[in-house]
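G., before I forget:
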Amino acid sequence: MKAEIFKIDWPVVFAIVIPLPCDAPVSGAAPYMTIQRRDLFLGVSHLTLAALLGAEFALPAEAQAGAETPSKGGTVRIAVDEPTLLTSAFITTMNIGMVSSKILEGLVAYDLNLKPIPALARSWDVAADGLTVTFHLRSGVSWHDGAPFSAADVKFSLLEVWKKLHPFGRAVFANVTAVDTPDADTVVVHLSAPALYLFNYINTYGAQILPRHIYEGTDILKNPANVAPIGTGPFVFKEWVRGSHIQLERNARYWQENQPYLDGVIFRFIPDPSARTAALENNEIDVALGSLIPVSNLKRFADKSKYQINTDDGRFLASIFLAQFNVRRPYLQDRRLRQALLSAIDRNALARLVWQGYAKPAMGPVPSSVSQYHSTSLETYPFDLKKAEALLDEVGFTRGADGIRLKLTLDSGSASSLEETRAAEFIKQAWSRVGIALELRTLDTAGFLNRVFTENDYDVMISSLHALPDPTLGVQRLYWTKNIIKGAPWTNGSGYSNPELDQVMQEAAAEADPAKRKALIQTWQEIAQRDLPILDLVELTWTTVSTARYHKVTSQGDGLFAGLQDAYLLPQS
Amino acid sequence: MLGRLFANKVALVGLLLLLIILAIAVFGRFWFPGDPWEMGAAPMLWPGEEAGNPLGTDFMGRDLATDLVSGAGVSLMIGFVSTGIAVVVGIGLGVISGYFGGAVDQGVTWLVELFQTIPSLVLAVILVAVFKPSITMVVIAIATVSWPPTARLMRQQVQSLRHRDFVLAGEAMGMSHTRLIFSQILPNALPPILSVATLTVAHAIQAEAALAFLGLGDPNVMSWGTIINSGREQLADAWYICGLPGFAILLTVLGFNFLGDGLNDAMNPHLRDHA
Amino acid sequence: MTRAALPRVVLRRVVRTLPVLLGIATLNFIILHLAPGDVVDVLAGESGASTPEYMAALRHEFGLDLPLYEQFLRYLTNLLQLHFGFSYRQNQPVLNLFIDRLPATLLLMLTAMALAIVIGTLLGMIAARRPHSWLDHGVSVLVLISYAVPSFWFGLMAIVVFSVHLHWLPSGGMVTIGANLSGPALLLDLTRHLVLPASTLAIFYLAVYARLVRGTLLQLHGAEFIRAARAKGAGEWRVAINHALRNVLAPLATMAGFQLASLLSGAVLVESVFSWPGLGRLAFDAILARDFNLLLGVLFISSVLVTLLNMGTDALCVLLDPRMERLA
């Protein structure tokens, strides 16, 4: 397909030359599309490439670059799950990110191909040895309280917040040795080893910039600004009525001229799924983010003249629904058992029945949306009951008089979505056909995490995890021996330990050459798919359902965390 | 007494309803023998759309008729068992409290007030959510919040009987406490409990449905509340998924209420209204 | 009981309630500590990742690593000083969260109670006018059905009919957010949102009151004073309203007082179905998040409120009693 021919390997690009600045003011055209990059492989000129890139960007149906002139005014009403805080700088909960991203910003955002596009950083370059990264920030940006934004804020956020407190930041910025701010608009990051994965995690969700003058010297986790944030973003925090809504107002001094188009944003908390559907249909809300409209109700919004269903907003997270084995248990240690169990699940039917097609069968630990590293040449274990039964016999689990080979338990957290509950029921049915009697157990979050990660008292557990745009960030933690940490949630809970894979993953993390890195990650996927401590079942899609009045000029791969400065509402007809 | 019971039309209707539901729960498995979890049919079929699925199917293609029948058994079982436990505990505590009086009575009264001040559903939710949503835990939780009314009634009954002639006579004869309780007091105190117990079963069934609706049911078991919870998202399109099991609960609870009222009337004729 | 007995009554109730409150605190403390996992697990889980060191530090900060009896003593001492604790998950003092949500729940409960009493009384009166007639039986069946129907199911069906299909009423929430209404417009908006949830909550209780009123009225039917009033030539309805109703008020008030605790239970379900931003939902979320401080706080303060309201009903009974005494 067209897109693939022009797929640009950005590590190559960043390792070599400086991209052109792109702070051209908006004039009806999408601001993010004025990026131009050089691709030495193709050896084409800027202009041609820009045209080609423009063509590539125009492919996705949702992109409406320059298609209409945005209308100003109006307040958009968005349904979200009520967050506990309003800053993502040290916490990765999705709904916190969905709200805080309108108020606070990061260095970049991500387009549909998960390539970084400028936000507070207008451009960046990497030294040839990969040990120095320079971010050129926008000038003339101010915080909502009037104080000027500068490189000092970035330096503070990186060293004191992201590196010390953020759950992933610790790993992402582990190699950072020092940060210089030669002037108010420049941040120079010094690394002890190349860290290509860094560029995949510096948007407002992964590395949110906090105001130094508010946070420095305070207990960052308890700072009152965490619930009444001060940011640089297109919207200013107005009020938070717990249990009801959050209201944001337009930032008249936003750094992008003429933006935001909207007068304000209201986030409504609607705990009941049917109520959300009803609210959207009754025009009580305009947008439902993050799959808050249950998949079973999506067909009510199929009328394209009235509604839009966006399936790209969550690409950045690359979420996967998986089943993880506790390989410490002797009867779960033979990989043929796990291979058999994967062959017994019809992933196509699972995606179709439970997620109504708003999901894709997963073929490995790196989802297909992470196109740079996703491998299509892995062992896929297609649905094959006979093969499953043969393998199970081979391993020694033969059917008893009652037809049962083995009794297992499947744990899920009760906070999991209805889809996950249904998936558990589906798996129970699927495995019962090959003689595995599965007992389903649900526990509330604390009990579930305690059972899986502290007590290690389970056979199989199901969960959804974000693989993130870089395997080093999202996937390694599940397979790495060094990440088997008792008592800490979302670490390597299966107990899987393979020195060969550890070696491959560690090398991939430190590799500066993109081609070599890709090869290492290929090997990584092959090993993971052979050993299968984790069954990657389904790649999830985060849907955003909105009324036809709601438009956003650019589509983003991290649309869930978009600032919405380029969003507008058509006038009521 | 039985004569009065059968003369009470309402109670008869209740009894009839319950017998029908019981029959469905027990014998229904012959008409709908499938696995309630089987996801074989086309999803979201309306009742009557397909011959093989007379009551339609749910979102995952599970036959609702099979689910409802299986759910009947589960809901009834949970209702009966938890009430059984609650009633036994209630009787025990009520008797002790009413018979011995004094500090024991104070203690039990305090316990009863405690459990009646905490909102019962909240306590049940805490117990199930925190320990483990399973049938056992659901039964225990419901029993834990259902025993106070029985205990109060029993206490009242025993207190009023305690000083009656035949009991005092028994005491004078040297009967032990246990014998007194079991041979003299209980037989006279128990009949009104029957009515309360019937109503408690009705509450227990509703409580189980509420717990399942809040997502705290046993995931391995299909009860009426589980079906309602699973159909919550399809309210606009396929409301029958919520409608049918809810209606079943309504009929069952109604049956128990009619019966309980009838029993009450039969046993307390002097409380019946006069024109 | 006479009016002079009022202070004694109140005092007695307070003395009786203190051990109950202590019992509530103890019970919840025990349950939540017996359970596997704690609030730090939830926080760490939600944040996406955590290190054991960080979690240990949090536990130390929350005082969760102290021996149980010490934690309990700490908690009790705080309660006595009316410090209801801090919700670590919501980053707010418990009292603030409680006060934030209390008005919504109170509004819901009081409206539901009012609806239940008014409709229940009306139905009871209709049924009692001609006992054992078809009207009486009809009302009785209706009342029994409303007693038996699962409230959350009724709420869901009401949404389907009135919101999804008829579009008459909103499907949830308390007000139309962002409309920034005030005055009569706000009142109208609030009322529209209140209709379905309050009716759903009321449906069970109206049955209770209908039966109570019917029973009480029938008991009084033959009472002396009514015969006397009839002899005086007072019209049927005047008799009912002026004399019988006054006597119904006392048992009605007592019953209403007892129902308060169960109303909160009902509120959990109704608030869940209608996304009503009240205490019921707060308590439910607190349970799932093991937000121990918040949960205990909500339960405790609610119990105090219930006790106060019960004291109020007791006082009301004393005030209404003198007339009751005259009757006997």
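Confidence is low (pLDDT under 50) at residues 1-66 of chain A. Chain A has 17 helices and 21 strands.

More on Monday.
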